[in-house]
Amino acid sequence: MPKTNRAMLKVLNTPEPVEQIIARLLVQGRGKPEKLSVGSALEFRREAYGLSADEFAFVLGLQRSHYNEIVNGRRDMSKAAMRRAFAVGVPAAVLLQPVRREATRPRSA
After folding, report:
1. What is the per-residue pLDDT for 11?
2. How many Å apart are CA 20 and CA 99, to the nearest integer?
3. How far apart are the two ends of the chain, measured CA to CA in Å?
4. What integer is the mean pLDDT of 6-31?
5. At the topology level of CATH, where does 3-95 sit?
6. Is 61 exposed, middle or buried (0-12, 13-18, 19+ CB in 10 A)?
7. CA 65 → CA 1, 24, 31, 74, 90, distances in Å?
8. How many CB atoms lie within 10 A of CB 59?
9. Lower CB density within 10 Å: C or N end of the chain?
10. What's this model's pTM, rounded to 2 decimal places?
């Protein structure tokens, strides 16, 4: 395993400080999780850990392009990616809600 991956896993396995847990719970408790999109919840958690999109995609077991499509509402998450997202703090209520897809334009020939 490359050194950067080990360092990233060490950060993710480090317990959250109590103050940060309280702040996270307060933020999560203010809004109804059903109104959050999967993409915004993933981005919130990614930014909370200070990871790049590439690093967070790796944590979720996804390719960067697939992660981008999920964040932008064009692709569903696999069950394995959902389990990993839940493990790093994305609420289950958000992960299990129906995905609202953005309208896609037909490809021109």
Report:
1. 74
2. 29
3. 43
4. 73
5. 434 Repressor (Amino-terminal Domain) (1.10.260)
6. middle
7. 22, 28, 29, 11, 20
8. 22
9. C
10. 0.62
